[in-house]
Amino acid sequence: MEKVGKDGVITVSDGKTMSNELEVVEGMKLDRGYISPYFVNNAKTQKCELENPVILIHDKKISSLNSLIPFLEMALGEQKPVLIVAEDVESEALATLVLNKLRAGLKICAIKAPGFGENRKASLQDLATLTGGQLVSEELGMKLEKVTPDMLGRAKRVTISKDDTIILDGAGDKQAIAERCEQIREVINTSTSDYDKEKAQERLAKLSGGVAVLKIGGASEAEVGEKKDRVTDALNATKAAVEEGIVPGGGVALLYASKVLEKLKPANFDQKIGIQIIQSALKAPTHTIAANAGVEGPVVIGKLLEQDNWDFGYDAAKGEYTDMVKAGIIDPVKVIRTALVDAASVSSLLTTTEAVVYELPKDEKEGPPMGGPGGGMGGYDY
User: Fold this and answer.
1) Nearest CA to 253 among 335, 344, 316?
2) What is the pLDDT of residue 286?
3) In the list 79, 115, 170, 271, which could disulfide-bond 120, CB 3.0-4.6 Å?
């Protein structure tokens, strides 16, 4: 997170060695590779590498040769490598690009635009902002045949593999990029769709922070899977902490929150009981942690509630009272808050429900019934 920033994308994947590795990609990474393997110009790495290319960004399919010829003539005049990003490049247009690459030695590559629908257009506009170009769109009154050099994006280096494209050092204006990032943040804050928020977050990361990949290694598939789960949990907790901050862990944040409820003045007996129920629930995490450590929960809770220092808590691992923040025992505010809100929501639902259906627990002391002639299947009740 220090490498890519709070808006950066951090992914966890399987490593190929015994140790853990961190790979950081600076710039924009698109989840699209070259359309044809004939665009490869580095046989060793099986990649297409373009130095200081011009970039055409188009939101439609390119299939007609007539619409592409004016652009190719202009690109040849630029005497620079060419990257084409479009919805698709097919038929005679693709054949022409491949022939120009193989016979004329033109350094060129074409990739499909990332995303779908409105998200694709937004991603292409992000790319145009990053590279200092324009999105060539008929909706904006621009045609492929009328493209001029100033409408092309530029970058210091572009590397295209079979699966993805990395654009480094785009020539876009820093102020324009910052404004675009702010627009995306506004989309994240105002969107009511989790899917839209997730896609906007990915766009923001690609435009501003870069991409980091944590490659988890191990001696076996089981070990790698276990370590990946732990790393993913830690990563999610860290992201949550960065978003909304932290509180002392060990359940003490909720425990001390229960003291605030003592200041409430219930209007009737029912409200009084409701407050007591919530106070009891807020004390439950600390009580459970203490009980699991083999100590009396009520004793621990009583001692903590006598304190004025709200960072003070019980370290169950060491069996001692300490400053939880200084000891590194912390919880993300977002995790605690959402857990409390979700618990309250479920409790409210159950309170207003007339009936609840649940499965009766089986008596573990009873062995499974023996199967036999005329008998039922073992382990089932009839």
Assistant:
1) 335
2) 95
3) 115
